[in-house]
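Quick one before lunch.
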Amino acid sequence: MGIWEPQSVAIVRLRGVDDLPACVKALREVHRQDGYPTRWPRDPAGWLSPTSLVAAWIAVDGGSLGGHIALVAGVDDSLLIAAAGRPASELAAVSRLFVDPTRRGRRLGQMLLNTVTEYAGEHELGLVLDVVDETRSAAIALYERLGWRLVGQRAAGWMTAAGVRPKLRLYVLPKNPSPLTLSPPGPGKATLN
Ligand SMILES: CC(C)(COP(=O)(O)OP(=O)(O)OC[C@H]1O[C@@H](n2cnc3c(N)ncnc32)[C@H](O)[C@@H]1OP(=O)(O)O)[C@@H](O)C(=O)NCCC(=O)NCCS
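Model of the coenzyme A complex:
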């Protein structure tokens, strides 16, 4: 007979000011392991609350911070605006998405994106995002699996510490995305609610 082990239950909720220290701590680890963000910001808590922030959410997994996502207004990319087919005032960009490296592959990223998508639906906002074009990017795989549509590519408006201007992939979330079929969650996946 198997031994019953309680599974951690992950939830997503709006980020509070008190959550920022834990977010910065997790972000530091993400930067160290994944190079995201490319350059470590001088004011990481400020970086997590960019100008035009609409809202930010965190995933709480087993009582501690599992991940983070933000929604930002003021989309000014003409390609994204044209591809979304809506005025900039009706668009918001997904930003500052990361999951604690020790909790990857448990669908926390998907939960955070689903929360933002639900919020956008309720507020009649179209969603867009850009992501650095990298091979074997977990982020790109996740966006495409959830039905985000690649609408173009362009050079970033910023440079890496090495002076390289990375290529960005631009995505729009269609009104009725058709997510790719999911493989069944493996052992250790979070119990989602
Ligand atoms: C992109 C990111 C948020 C995904 O978070 P996540 O919680 O692992 O996402 P999910 O579990 O919902 O799905 C991730 C997929 O990548 C796979 N994966 C990638 N890295 C993994 C790892 N280290 N361990 C296990 N699975 C991993 C998973 O198998 C999963 O695929 P599946 O659903 O087919 O099994 C996370 O990898 C991350 O924080 N990356 C660094 C920051 C970043 O790139 N942010 C995006 C900026 S645009």
